[in-house]
């Protein structure tokens, strides 16, 4: 496992993040002993970045993470989130300062710690004023209860606006974003990833296996996923499975390695999940894989998305000719849109 800085910060995180959404509870989740074994395997491989949220398992995921990190709290980067509620009380959901403060206090108790390394707004609620959110985050950072803040599932223009506001007022800015991103679902390449690269924000990718659509294999569950997948997702899954067969790797390993190599952001951190130690070890093996140019070209072609207006318009030869005085071929502009793979 290698490490790097997360966005515009000095926070050092491992190149794969462990998702703990299902940890610590019976039934739909993974019981505590198995959850602990998975986290222990991840840590033994060098992983230090744990992702959870107050809503996961109605708090059981945070409790499982807290129990695990207790022996060496400062070794781990713990990320949790606030916004949604499983109940029907309108005051317990949303992005308000009130909800934020209550969520932090509850998360600290469940995690058994006095600080949260990375605290996310979990999703945009379309109602809370942005200055209320950013001032609330800054107060939490100033108090020491939160070290860094980030944004999950928030429109790019709101994140840009938030960081401009934070910079102008001397508040704690977002240092990273969390987005749905996989070889089969690449819409963040339109605005979110270019924004993150420009503003030096870390990028964490949830559902990097497209909800299981890219795991390959046979059986009723895989057949159901294939039947419900869009034509493009099916096309990407087919290419990934073919490359897996040719290279001797699993489809999951190829999908994770390919996502890390796409190159639309300097460094994308996939959230890897697992229901067993063996599954986690298999996913971690993606770090040992480098796909060749031909395989990446096939992956890029199958999953490429239409960037839409104004991106396609501004990248067209006729417009580039106008904006460079007919010198586009001689102008080294690193900011110019680039649809070609950069691996």
Automatic annotation (TrEMBL):
It comes from Novosphingobium cyanobacteriorum. Residues 15-302 form the NADP-dependent oxidoreductase domain. InterPro entries: AKR_Detox_Biosynth, NAD(P)_OxRdtase_dom_sf, NADP_OxRdtase_dom. It comes from the Bacteria. CDD domains: AKR_AKR9A_9B. Pfam families: Aldo_ket_red. Keywords: Oxidoreductase. This is Aldo/keto reductase.
